[in-house]
Amino acid sequence: MDKLFAGLLILLFAGLIACDNAPQSTEETEDETAEEMDASSAQFGGLALYTLRDTLGKDPKAVLREVAEVGYKYIEAAGYSDGKFYGMAPAEFKSFLDEIGITPLSSHHGDVTLDNADAMIAAVKEAGFKYFVIPVPPMGHFKFDPETRSLSMSEDLEEVMGIINTIAEKCTAAGLECLYHNHNFEFEENAKGIVPIDYFIENSDPEHLNFQMDLYWVTKAGADPIAYFNKAPGRFKSWHVKDMDAEGRFAPVGTGSIDFGKILAQKDKAGMEYYFVEQDMTFNETPMEAIEISHEALKEIGFK
Questions:
Q1: 230 close to 201: Cβ distance less than 8 angstroms
Q2: 266: Cβ–Cβ under 8 A, 6 or more apart, which residues?
Q3: What pLDDT, on a 0 to 100 scale, did the predictor assign at position 42?
Q4: Does residue 23 carry a pLDDT above 50?
Q5: What is the CB neighbour count within 10 angstroms for residue 196?
Q6: Using CA atoms, how far apart are residues 303 and 285, in angstroms rounded to an integer?
Q7: Which of 72, 211, 247, 274 could form a disulfide with 47 if both were Cys (CB 3.0 to 4.6 A apart)?
Q8: CATH number, domain containing residue 283
Q9: Residue 106, class by beta-carbon neighbours within 10 Å (0-12 exposed, 13-18 middle, 19+ buried)?
Q10: In angstroms, rounded to a whole number, what is the distance separating the alpha carbons of residues 22 and 20?
């Protein structure tokens, strides 16, 4: 009896193992694969957090969770102060982004100087970013007229370039990539007959400095992004993607006049590795609504 019972147990156990190891039906496997693909494709693209600067100043963690829920995969910071990103120490900021499934890729530092660059670069590195971005001419060379709301820069391009190149070399030494971000004035001829962006391209080393092209501001200046991709191939490593409405104002991607599809077709020539949706101001929707509209439009245009 004992031998019979033991034999039955062995057969039963073998049957259970066979059931556990039985292959899933093709239909079940396809369903699971489709779900995995949907989950991975739902989150894509980058967001420049400057767009949400007002609400980020109040409750950064809640806002960043919303950004993840909208579907953005990586971010560009514009909220570094006193050694912290949005009130969080670099390691804490990185840990929180890991927790919500967002990658820190790029960080803007408009107040960088030759004196504070080392500390800023160290913080950017610790937080896990890839790019250190200089968003305006540094150290007093950027000008903003509050009455006309116009932007400009000093004409001492040699001094500006010297500062930027020095900071860029520091970034390289730290294992970061340095980019310069444009507005409209870099693409417009100054009083000396020089187009600043041309000077920057010609007087910088791509081993240390490359560029973040803001497609709105290039268009605002009346310049052609693709012409610059051809002029300096491979040097426009990231883009700011925002549209222009009929009045020339900022608009959500896909609602304005910029032909992003045509520009995107030249991304390899540009050297574009990442892009970030940005909208400096909103007019017909909240900033959060604007980034949702833009994220949906990215898919239709072909951004991934």
A1: no
A2: 225, 226, 229
A3: 74
A4: no
A5: 22
A6: 23
A7: 72
A8: 3.20.20.150
A9: buried
A10: 6
